[in-house]
């Protein structure tokens, strides 16, 4: 029996434009990850994070972001935040730690992680979140844009662009190694080759201006690096004398050619393993 051509066309259209996503069960978890193809919010039972007290050398950024997040969770005005700067200095760790701290205060706040490559779908995600009574911290890690990257246009919907604007129950936090979210050589190249240099990069550079908070993270000095490791040792019960810790930790960072919170954690992980302590 031959299928009616109209039925085949209808089936093809359904595949191209699937039925709207049903309302997620936001009570299932406090953290979610957004996926596409198909669109869905997957609950995360255990978030990979560290206690905020273990984040050393970022006191000002910590206090500012925590206060902003508390305001938002209480239904008060709050800014989108861009955490930018040195690699491995706790930008993403701070976002997750702040969320945990606000939740521990009994404030209703959920976190949703959005991958950079899924930015074109952000409008659909915002429509889902807009219809909920919950309040959401929308988070994108390692945000940056390349030479012919058009994803930045989608991000404007999260910030303050578009007719609808950002939903009242959503605030957006992003981390990046670049303050202007684009390579410096790209900025200089467009300025040097364009007829009107100031307009050539204005659209992309102005994207970072749409974040109400800019929080800078800078490389740590040796004392901060050692304090981070000592804090991890105390928190997890790893016993080591100061002289041994100092000698080993400095040798470790020398072999890595870098000194940061991430390197401190990597040394501590090695130390805990050698001492037979689970973390």
Give a written overview of the molecule:
The structure is a single chain. With 279 residues, the chain is of the alpha/beta class. It folds into two domains: 26-217, P-loop containing nucleotide triphosphate hydrolases (Rossmann fold, 3-Layer(aba) Sandwich), CATH 3.40.50; 222-274. Helices cover 43% and strands 13% of the residues. It has helices at 5-16, 59-73, 91-104, 122-130, 152-155, 184-193, 197-200, 202-209, 222-236, 242-256, 261-274; strands at 31-35, 40-43, 81-85, 110-113, 136-140, 170-176, 213-217. The longest helix is centred in the N-terminal third of the chain and has 15 residues, at 59-73. It is elongated, with a radius of gyration of 22 Å. The model has no long low-confidence stretch (mean pLDDT 85). InterPro entries: DUF815, P-loop_NTPase. It holds the Pfam family DUF815.
Q: What secondary-structure arrangement, pairings included, does this model have?
A:
Blueprint: H1 5-16, E1 31-35, E2 40-43, H2 59-73, E3 81-85, H3 91-104, E4 110-113, H4 122-130, E5 136-140, H5 152-155, E6 170-176, H6 184-193, H7 197-200, H8 202-209, E7 213-217, H9 222-236, H10 242-256, H11 261-274
Parallel strand pairs: 1-4, 3-6, 3-7, 4-5, 5-6
Antiparallel strand pairs: 1-2
